[in-house]
Structure formats: C-alpha cells, structure tokens
Amino acid sequence: MPLHFKSYLNKPSSYKGGKSLSEVSSDKKIYKLSSNENQFGSSPMAIEAMETSLKTLSLYPDRTDHRLCKALEQFYGSVFSADQFITTNSGVANIEMIMSGFLEEGTECIICNPAFGAYDDFARKFGATVVDVPLVGNDLHLDVDAIFGAINEHTRLIFITSPNNPTGTYIPKDQVDALMSGVPDHVVVVYDEVYFQFADADDYVRGIPYVKEGKNVIGVNSFSKAYGLAALRVGYSYSTPEIARYLRQLQRPFMINAVSMDAAIGALQDHEFISSTVESIHRERDYLYLHFDRLEIDYWKTQANFILIKPTMHIAEFEEKLFRGGIMIRDAGPFGAQDCARITIGTREANQLLIETIESILY
Ligand SMILES: Cc1ncc(COP(=O)(O)O)c(C=O)c1O
Fold first, then answer.
1. Whose CA is nearest to atom 11 of ligand 1?
2. Number of domains in the chain
3. d(CA 318, ligand 1 centre) in Å
C-alpha cells in the first residue's frame, strides 16, 4: 500500500520568502532592500530585555503567552482584553494558524492580488480553493463589489492587507467600511496590518474599530517590521472574544520562546524607537519620490516601509544589475505585480547608492 500523502500538501511551496544575506555571495557590501526589514536597527528596549532573558536559557519559557497578551492589552489601552490576543512564532505563523482554524478541503479563501505570497500558498496547503479578486485600476484599489460577488457558502476567509505588500498602497476607510458592512456572518475578514505604523494617510484605518463593533475580523500584526525584530519570529493577532477563544485552542504550551517573548514585551514600551523609525522612513520616502520623479520612474505612493516601482527594464536584469551595484531588491512578479520591483526604504546611504545605481543602469 502506498503512503497516504495528502495530495494538496504534496507539492513544493510557492511562497519561499526573500533570500537572506548568507545565501548570496558578493565581494561588496550589500544593502538588503529586499525583505522590508527595519533598516534602522532593532528596538533598544527589546535588546535590553533579551539580555536579561539570556541569563535563564536553561529554563523553559512561560507555558502560555499570558504575559505578552497582558502587555498587548496595556499597549492597546484596554480596548481588548488579554484573551482577545493570539500570539504566534511570527506573522506568517499567525496567518497559518488562522487558516488551520477555518480552511479545509471544500472551503474557499478570497485573496486580492498583488498580495503577500503566503496567503495563496498556505491556503492551498490546507486543501482550500483560492479565489483571487485582483486589485483594480492604476491606484490598485480593492474591488469591494467583486469581493461580494465572489463570496458563496464555501467562503471562509477574506484576506485584505493595508498597507499592502507588495504595492505599498492602503485601503481607505470608506472602502473598508463598505466591505465590513456587507460580509455575511459565516465569513471572517483577516485584516493584515503588519505595516500599520508607517501609514500616515488621514483615512487609513486599522481592524480595531471593526473588532470592537463585534464584526468577524482578525487584525494580524508582527514584531518583524517597525520593531526591527524579524529574526525573533513573533507575531500576534486580535479578534472578537469568540474567534480569539477558538484560535487560542490551537496554541501549543511553551510556544513563544522566552527570549522572543521578553523582547516583544520590551518592544511594546519602546515608543521612541517606533517614532524615530517612522520619521526616518517618511523622510527617506520623500527622498526616493524626489529622485524617482527626476528619473521618470513609475512608482506607487506608499504607506509602508517599501516602494513598488516599474522600471523600464526586464526585472531579472534590473535585479541582477542592482545586486552587482551592492543592492538587493525583490522581483514583485511572484506576488502578482509583473514587471515590478519592491524596494525596502533604506538609510540615506543605501538610498543614495540605490539612486546612483538605478541612474547608471537605466540611462
Ligand atoms: C503583508 C505581510 N503579512 C505578514 C508578514 C509576516 O511577517 P513575519 O512572519 O515576519 O511576522 C509579512 C512579511 O513580509 C507581510 O509582508
């Protein structure tokens, strides 16, 4: 008898994540602008907390995530209680946990490409059918009516992302309102807001008010981006008491390692690091806009810590030439943005080199 591999699991993953520096070789200093990491370092308060944590590595961590959830409750000004948070080993692990709670063979999951590659890949690994309702127009906005048209009795999850990866665009409040008011009761909206700290548009909205209203919404967050803790793999989500109770049953004992938990708790208090990171990103975003305009490069205005551009050169060649110049960027094709490159906003030094290199390869 052959082994009983699940057919939908028995295929290579399409979502692989960006290359790490150890995977590439170059005799030059490489600026890694390919994974939307914080180019300004990590929260000092998180590092301090980790240093203390390192002294007790022989002990198991807390059995549950209660301390981190309490810290989140405080961080959110008690808008939610501690048991409305679900912490995981990264944002992607949170997405995977949500999917394991709601998807199986015969169910459907709506995504809106261009989107974060994990949504499509992970949903298929749970045997679900992925229904793509692409973003539309030059401004890549959400097609709310088309989403309503795609919902049926098999639909379980809708993924929306604001600010969105890889486009950097956001979903204005009136569109989120329209979506949330028309989603039927059997469907959960997963609102991925891992880049929320960078958004400064007046009509940007998070998932918080909708969860407060009792809608079936899960707000997904990560410590990898603004807090600069990508290496530690900590993420969390918040939701209604009913959904959070359900998802929390999927957690394992000792799931969050002690160093990561202490770092995350420390990071939540580090308002200064977040403000200085966000300030630097906005300053450097303006610098890049200025030069992209001067060089007549097409790009989308961003609310995140990266920018999607459409260079007038084949993307593989563009990526290769930038790498030879010392800069790693990401081909956004696999995320559904053909012929586009996603570039993390760097330090001034990195951005200057980026602009000089782009200028020399395109002109
Ligand atoms: C939109 C989006 N959601 C979730 C994540 C997951 O982040 P992490 O797994 O590092 O917490 C990412 C990472 O790039 C992302 O871009």
1. 91
2. 2
3. 25
Helix, strand or coil, per DSSP, at residue 190: strand
| Dihedral sign for Cα atoms in the order 220, 276, 38, 287 | positive
Q: Is 259 helix (H, G, I), strand (E, B) or coil?
A: helix
The region that residue 57 occupies, defined by phi over 0 for left and psi between -120 and 50 for alpha, beta otherwise, is alpha
Å from CA of 35 to ligand 1 middle: 9
Give the domain range for residue 187.
44-269
pLDDT digits (tens, 9 = 90+) for 139-195: 999 999 999 999 999 999 999 999 999 999 999 999 999 999 999 999 999 999 999
Cα 235 to middle of ligand 1, angstroms: 9
CA distances from 176 to 48, 72, 141, 153, 337 (A): 38, 24, 11, 22, 22
Q: pLDDT (tens digit, 9 = 90+) per residue, 107-132?
A: 999 999 999 999 999 999 999 999 99
Last residue of a domain, one of 216, 239, 269: 269
